[in-house]
Structure to design on (498 residues):
């Protein structure tokens, strides 16, 4: 039996305004790094941190991501072959968490570097950074260790890491860096919001359930465009990608335009989105709040569209296309387009989310056709 | 009549409309957040053009992708052109990437619901 969709709400429900959780599992290329940074930048610009703080966070994220491209080992068909990237924001704390496969013979040297870094205070890090910069031209790995030094120096925090053996030749290297934008002033007892264990759990969940991407946060046009760029940079252009792209635009613009907001969340639209990749298909999953009074009409509409065959869908599409109401919010074509492009039914679920709202969850399969 | 030119962005198309040179081009991506807002000056331009069209009008549709919100606006452009088919010799050149079944399908569908000659043109890559 197919898994119920309600796990989406369980994952979503603790969200608060300005939170962000972005997870990617797969190959990390330079282009992808650029697109993930773009997504981070868009979201940083919305938070009320100072410009100086924003550029610090952006810098640390860049170093963390480039660290993967510099170090990742490549092995045949290992399940752990892909890297994992997490960008997480909860209240005043930002986390950049990464995981990648590495060769075991570099393990000792990496451990030593990290221990050295973690035992230095701010002045010590400055000194080490200066020394490493001077030496950089001479050692091939100098650049990479400078990245780690800078991450520790600029975050003002220890680099939390774990090296987990995978097989005789490879280990998986997990690293998290926390940036506290309150400078430790906020009253949260210094509680960690994202631990190494959280990263490992997410990685296992992503591997077991074939996720390649998840995004939990604000759904606006800019984030939508960033997610689309990430899709494009992670996949070459095929018939399947064209279909995925089209379904993704309609599914996400549906959230951008229709999601209901919590009280006081003006200008911030909470939603969640996942991509799963299976051998024969992709699954796109999305969730957002809807006002309770609109739920019945929404489910009736999906049921109706799901019951149509391709001739019926085409007829309905043309009927709405010529309907001249210029409602900028709703064209009424989105779900029809999703059905036509994916060739699948729209699976959905609604659960009570309190305060006059339901949480709407939808899943669409896009078959691999190439 | 003044030409209408808009450079493309990540989510809005390149638009180049010039009655003098006989250029009628829509290209690249169209997935604006508010398609009505984006297309309203485009539709206004076409409405104006339809008052005194050239003897020949060739609309070059080179869109790589358009969302459903844009499709409603594009159909309005096609309907405007359909309304002047007695005054101007109109052709719609509908380009699509060979591998893009959805764009091909839309072209076929629109050619049936709009009473104008369509050329469906598969290309390896959509050039400007």
């Amino acid at each position: 039996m197919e898994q119920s969709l309600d796990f989406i709400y369980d994952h979503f429900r603790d969200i608060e305004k300005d939170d962000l959780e972005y997870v990617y599992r797969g190959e990390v290329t330079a282009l992808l790094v650029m697109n993930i940074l773009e997504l981070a930048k868009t979201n940083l610009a919305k938070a009320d941190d100072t410009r100086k703080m924003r550029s610090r966070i952006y810098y640390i994220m860049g170093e963390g991501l480039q660290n993967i491209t510099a170090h990742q080992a490549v092995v045949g068909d290992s399940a752990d072959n892909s890297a994992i990237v997490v960008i997480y924001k909860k209240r005043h704390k930002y986390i950049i968490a990464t995981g990648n496969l590495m060769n075991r013979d570099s393990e000792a040297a990496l451990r030593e570097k990290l221990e050295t870094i973690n035992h230095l205070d701010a002045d010590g890090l400055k000194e080490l950074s200066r020394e490493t910069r001077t030496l950089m031209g001479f050692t091939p790995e100098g650049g990479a260790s400078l990245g780690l030094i800078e991450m520790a120096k600029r975050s003002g925090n220890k680099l939390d890491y774990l090296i987990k053996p995978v097989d005789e030749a490879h280990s998986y290297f997990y690293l998290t860096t926390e940036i506290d934008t309150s400078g430790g002033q906020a009253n949260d007892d210094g509680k960690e919001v994202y631990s190494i264990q959280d990263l490992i759990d997410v990685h296992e969940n992503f591997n077991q359930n074939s996720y390649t991407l998840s995004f939990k946060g604000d759904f606006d046009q800019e984030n939508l465009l960033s997610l689309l760029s990430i899709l494009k940079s992670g996949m070459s252009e095929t018939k399947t990608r064209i279909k995925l792209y089209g379904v993704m635009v309609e599914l996400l613009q549906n959230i951008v335009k229709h999601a209901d907001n919590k009280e006081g969340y003006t200008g911030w639209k909470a939603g969640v989105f996942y991509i799963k990749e299976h051998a024969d298909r992709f699954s796109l999953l999305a969730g957002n709040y809807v006002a309770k009074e609109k739920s019945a009409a929404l489910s009736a509409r999906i049921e109706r569209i799901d019951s149509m065959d391709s001739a019926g869908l085409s007829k309905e599409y043309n009927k709405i296309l010529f309907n001249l109401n210029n409602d900028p919010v709703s064209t009424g074509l989105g779900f029809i387009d999703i059905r036509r492009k994916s060739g699948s039914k729209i699976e959905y679920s609604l659960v009570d989310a309190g305060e006059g709202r339901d949480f709407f969850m939808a899943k669409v399969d896009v078959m691999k056709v190439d | 009549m003044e030409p209408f030119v808009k450079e493309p962005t990540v989510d809005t198309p390149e638009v180049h409309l010039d009655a003098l040179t006989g250029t009628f081009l829509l290209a690249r991506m169209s997935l604006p957040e508010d398609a009505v807002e984006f297309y309203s000056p485009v539709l206004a331009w076409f409405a104006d053009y339809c008052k005194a069209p050239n003897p020949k009008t060739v609309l070059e549709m080179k869109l790589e992708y358009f969302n459903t919100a844009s499709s409603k606006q594009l159909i309005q452009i096609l309907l405007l052109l359909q309304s002047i088919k007695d005054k101007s010799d109109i052709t719609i050149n509908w380009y699509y990437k060979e591998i893009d079944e959805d764009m091909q399908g839309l072209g076929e569908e629109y050619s049936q619901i709009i009473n104008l000659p369509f050329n469906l043109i598969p290309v390896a890559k959509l050039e400007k």
Remarks:
- Residues 136 and 142 of chain A are 5 Å apart (CA to CA).
- The longest strand of chain A covers residues 93-103.
- Chain A has a mean pLDDT of 88.
- The first helix of chain A runs from residue 7 to 12.
